[in-house]
Write a structure and sequence with these properties.
Helices cover 21% and strands 25% of the residues. By secondary structure, it is an alpha+beta fold. The protein has one domain: 3-Layer(bba) Sandwich (Chalcone isomerase).
Length: 178
């Protein structure tokens, strides 16, 4: 009864209760959650043709990170990158069809989604040979469900880009705006 009365007084006076302890960070793709509104709220800053796979990638970044990059700042804590893969339209001979600028023409259907997210303290717990700063990676199906496939290839591919904050197109985009 005393506990209930104390809670009622605390709420009535507008006092805050101690915050529940947050779970400690555990490395892994489960930290990354696909924003359901990325196609409408995020900035699509690049499209990348991948001739080896006959796909085109749409690259999105959250608007808060985009604004920081426009000012010449590095990718801030909370940067969220979404990579959306689409098959290229193919000619009868199997080669990708090109638009008037010589770029692949994307099929509308998404075939895969990858994400890269940066949060302060992320990366702790990975061995140095794997760690990519404070970035985590995750994969998703075309419907947005988590793809449980390993993300080790993401770490391996991005590791040599340490001087570029472990990013490819985002770093290149930011450098063009400085």
């Amino acid at each position: 009864m005393f506990r209930s009365a104390a809670l009622a007084i605390t709420v009535a006076l507008g006092l805050s209760l101690p915050a529940a302890a947050q779970a400690p960070y555990t490395p892994g793709p489960d930290n990354v959650v696909l924003p359901t509104d990325y196609q409408t709220r995020f900035v699509r800053y690049a499209m990348v043709d991948k001739p080896d796979r006959k796909i085109i990638r749409f690259m999105y970044v959250n608007p808060e990170a985009f604004d920081a990059l426009k000012k010449g700042e590095p990718a801030p804590d909370g940067t969220v990158l979404v990579m959306e893969d689409h098959n290229a339209k193919l000619a009868a001979d199997g080669t990708p069809m090109l638009d008037l600028q010589g770029r692949f023409i994307a099929q509308p259907a998404i075939i895969a989604i990858g994400m890269q997210e940066k949060r302060k303290g992320w990366g702790v717990g990975y061995a140095e040979e794997k760690r990519n700063g404070e970035w985590e990676y995750a994969r998703f199906t075309p419907t947005g469900a988590r793809n449980p496939a390993p993300v080790d290839a993401c770490f391996q591919c991005h590791k040599p880009r340490a001087a570029n904050d472990f990013t490819f197109t985002l770093w290149d985009y930011a450098q063009l705006r400085r």
